[in-house]
């Protein structure tokens, strides 16, 4: 949960976009992928578990398992994908712990 939370927001995707896999090199780690892509006209791209659960998730991997791309389409979900985007943004920001490094450990002050 303390990884950088990344997202893209655009008006419309103007190329044939089937999911996150097309945006990344094959060797890139799932945990380094965008958490969400919000296209105002096309919908919201999230992740879902490959084990048959239909729950959407804003993290590309969970407990070491790489998740599948999930797509909320406006024709089916109406404008609910804006609410889901806002919900996951709030959840991700709320889950991050703030770390205060001890700078004394990094300084040679003696």
Q: In terms of topology, how is this protein built?
A:
Layout: E1 7-10, E2 36-39, E3 43-48, E4 56-57, E5 61-62, E6 65-66, E7 68-72, H1 74-77, H2 80-95
Parallel strand pairs: 1-2
Antiparallel strand pairs: 2-3, 3-4, 3-7, 5-6
> How many whole angstroms does the radius of gyration measure?
17 Å
**Cα separation of the termini:** 36 Å
What is the H-and-E element order? EEEEEEEHH
Helix proportion range? 10-25%
Mean pLDDT, all residues? 79
Give a short account of the largest sheet: 5 strands, mixed
**Which geometry do the CA atoms define?**
globular
What is the count of DSSP helices, taking H or I runs of 4+ residues? 2
Q: How many distinct beta strands?
A: 7
Give the amount of beta strand, in percent. Answer: 15-25%
Structural class: alpha+beta
Low-confidence stretches: none
Describe the structure in brief.
This protein has 110 residues and is of the alpha+beta class.
Question: How would you explain this protein's 3D organization?
Answer:
- By secondary structure, the chain is an alpha+beta fold.
- 18% of the residues lie in helices and 23% in strands.
- The mean pLDDT is 79.
């Amino acid at each position: 949960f303390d990884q950088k939370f990344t997202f893209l927001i655009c008006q419309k995707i103007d190329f044939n976009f089937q999911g996150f896999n097309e945006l990344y090199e094959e060797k890139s780690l799932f945990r380094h992928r965008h958490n969400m892509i919000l296209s105002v006209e096309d919908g919201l791209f999230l992740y879902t578990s490959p084990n048959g659960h239909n729950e959407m998730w804003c993290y590309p991997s969970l407990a070491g398992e790489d998740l599948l791309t999930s797509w909320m389409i406006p024709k089916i979900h109406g404008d609910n994908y804006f609410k889901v985007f806002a919900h996951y943004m709030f959840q991700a920001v709320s889950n991050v712990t703030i770390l205060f490094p001890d700078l004394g450990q990094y300084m040679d002050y003696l």
